């Protein structure tokens, strides 16, 4: 699929509950330094999501493992990006496939394998709905 053909869905939810907004804030506080997605942008995206709760659970698990791994390291943006990419891939693929696709720049394959193994949810590929 050509990424240029991807279009944003319209809003599915006019408002999100405060409890969900608080959880979104926590994930954006963790990842904005790496992915550049602000809280406001994330809220906009979640309002377009058919099931924001289930997708937020994925980002919370990624943040949990990211914070655990980075609590004693991740001094550089490049290192943070390696960890982020590893977890993003793992959220969509099995441990083995995520490792095969990773190509880390800073962390070692062994560190990446340890990191990926700490992610506890089932892999969930991104759904693309063709209209």
Would you write up a description of this structure?
The protein is mainly α and 131 residues long. The protein has one domain (16-117). It contains six helices and no strands. It has helices at residues 18-35, 39-48, 52-70, 77-92, 95-102, 109-117. Helix 1 crosses helix 3, helix 3 crosses helix 4 (77-92) and helix 4 (77-92) packs antiparallel against helix 5. The protein is globular and about 45 Å long. 24% of the residues are buried. The model has no long low-confidence stretch (mean pLDDT 92).
Helical element count?
6
The total of beta strands comes to 0
Largest β sheet strand count, sense and barrel closure: none
From the spread of the alpha carbons, the general shape counts as: globular
Fraction of helical residues: 55-70%
Derived from helix and strand composition plus strand pairing, the structural class reads mainly alpha
Could you say how many structural domains there are in total? Answer: 1
Termini Cα gap: 13 Å
Uncertain stretches: none
Radius of gyration: 15 Å
